[in-house]
Amino acid sequence: MAGYSLPVWVTAVALAALHSLRGQPFAGQVPVHLPQESKPRLVPVHQAAPLNAHTALAMGRCQPGDHLDLTRDLPIWVLGEWLPANSGHPPLQLLPGAGVGVHGDSGKICASAFALELLHQNLEPHVPSGKALGLTLIFPTGARLAERTSNSAFGVVDGLALLGMGPWVQPSAAPDQLAAARQRLAQVVAADTQTPVVLVLGANGWDLAQRHGLPEKALVRVGNWIGPLLVEAAERGCGQVLLWGYHGKLLKLAGGIFHTHHHIADGRAAVLTAFAALEGLTGPDLEQVHQAPTVDAALNQLRHNKPDLSRRLEALLLKAVEQQAQAYVARHSDHVPEVGVVVFDGHRQLRGCGPAGQILLKALQEPVGGATAA
User: What confidence category does residue 271 fall into, taking pLDDT thresholds of 50, 70 and 90?
Assistant: First the structure.
């Protein structure tokens, strides 16, 4: 059963803080108006109380339903405060507190358009005329949980971003996402059989692919369904497929893991450690790689301490991804396309290309007519 997305839970806790500021008694359920629904939904919150005449604190937890989700049981705190009247503040001002992700370049809260709209539409009607409301959002465990995401690869620092495209959880492992990706793949192949198909991991990977000049007509967002979509591409006669994504995800393919949702299979540490051992890393250095909190951290340590081994290891991993991908397709289809891989790191920089990936990337970046840029 689908549960509410993180923005809905944050909005409920924010409303509880506002109600407390207005002197209303605490209620364990708060009415939240969702888009395109005539009646509000009652969303549970845990606590709310005034701290003084101008501030109140409310608490709740994210419950995303039956789906496996990183935000399950995430504590949510919202500190609400009246801002000085006639100070030029907008009716509602959102501030990032501890554990809430911000854009590294601006320091502004990282939140989806849906999350911002939901907060404004639910809270602004309850702000008295002549007053302004400041809301500081706090995820007490957000900084630690963010280490398990690729947030830093997209310039998000300090915690979890307030993301969500709608009121209901839509996990990247959901079958409906596979159906949408298959439909997009069919459109891409039907429009152009000569251009390599690019299977892109994640919305942010999509943005980075466009920034690197990959044609949008070739891009297919795959979520975590890499294996099934590789086979689908083969069955549709694709001659060339490029895998494009954050290396923490694509690393799993070197170990034969082709559904990359972290709750289903997360063998990154084991894969990285095994390949590092094959390249001759031993003892405390190998243990340090295995215990690193992220793939980025492990590879950066090796780049700094053992640059020659690091280069060999990364080349070996990328080659293994390409080989494993072709072997996977060969087990399910008589037609096996050329499969290449390109990975980027936590600083939004291209980390490397496999042998086939380098060729396919160059072909995709060439302007129409085949002339390369000077």
Answer: confident
Enumerate domains of the chain plus CATH numbers: 6-160 (3.30.2110.10), 175-365 (no CATH)
Complete edge-to-edge strand list for the sheet that includes strand 350-353: 219-221, 197-200, 240-246, 338-344, 350-353
**pTM listed for this prediction:** 0.61
DSSP secondary structure string for all residues of 129-179 = TT-EEEEEEE-TTHHHHHTTSSGGGGTEESEE-B--SSSB---TT-HHHHH
CA-wise closest residue to 30 among 65, 167, 17? 17
Closest to 230 (Cα-Cα) out of 216, 213, 244: 244
155-to-128, 146, 262, 280 alpha-carbon distances in Å: 36, 12, 21, 34
Give the tens place of pLDDT for each residue, 328-342: 899 888 899 999 999
Strand partners, 143: none
Task: Enumerate the β-bridge partners of residue 246.
Answer: 344
What are residue 258's phi and psi, to 5 degrees? -115, 5
Rounded Cα distance, 269 and 259, in Å: 16
Separation between Cα atoms, residue 116 and residue 161, nearest integer Å: 12
Phi, psi torsion values for 343, nearest 5 degrees: -120, 150
